[in-house]
Automatic annotation (TrEMBL):
This is (S)-ureidoglycine aminohydrolase cupin domain-containing protein. Residues 48-121 form the (S)-ureidoglycine aminohydrolase cupin domain. It comes from the Bacteria. Residues 1-29 are annotated as: Disordered.
Length: 127
C-alpha cells in the first residue's frame, strides 16, 4: 500500500521586532486600574477558526484586569520591559526581558506594566 505525501508548502514565521505602527488596542474603563497605558498589537498569524493567534504586543506603564475564560491560554516571551502578573488569589509574578510566561485558562487577576513591555505572544482558545 502506498502512502500519499502532502505537497503543500508549510510556512513558518519568525518575528522578533514590531514592524510599522501596529494596531492601537482599546481598554475598557472598567478594566483599567492604573495609568493611561497605550497598548499595540502586531498580529503575525491567526488560524482560520481563530483558536490560535501569534504576534507581538507592546504596552506602556499601567495596570488592568485580565480574566481568561476556561479554554483560553496565553504563552508569551518578554523581549523588553518590566511587568508582573498578579493573580486574584496568589503571589505576584514579576517578569522582564528574556522571561517566558504561561497564563493559564481561567486566570483572574491583574496585568501590570512598570516599564514599557514588548512581548511575543501566542493565544490558544478552546482547542
Amino acid at each position: 500500500m502506498s502512502q500519499s505525501i502532502s505537497t503543500h508548502a508549510v510556512q513558518s514565521e519568525c518575528f522578533n521586532e514590531p514592524q510599522g505602527e501596529g494596531t492601537l488596542l482599546s481598554l475598557s474603563p472598567e478594566r483599567l486600574l492604573r495609568g493611561q497605558p497605550e497598548r499595540r498589537d502586531w498580529p503575525v498569524f491567526e488560524r482560520a477558526d481563530g483558536k490560535v493567534s501569534t504576534g507581538i504586543w507592546s504596552g506602556t506603564a499601567g495596570a488592568w484586569r485580565i480574566d481568561f475564560p476556561e479554554g483560553q491560554f496565553e504563552f508569551f516571551h518578554v523581549l523588553s520591559g518590566i511587568g508582573a502578573i498578579v493573580p486574584d488569589e496568589g503571589e505576584r509574578k514579576p517578569f522582564g526581558p528574556g522571561d517566558a510566561v504561561m497564563v493559564p485558562e481561567g486566570f483572574r487577576g491583574v496585568f501590570e506594566v512598570t516599564e514599557k513591555v514588548t512581548k511575543q505572544y501566542m493565544f490558544v482558545q478552546n482547542i
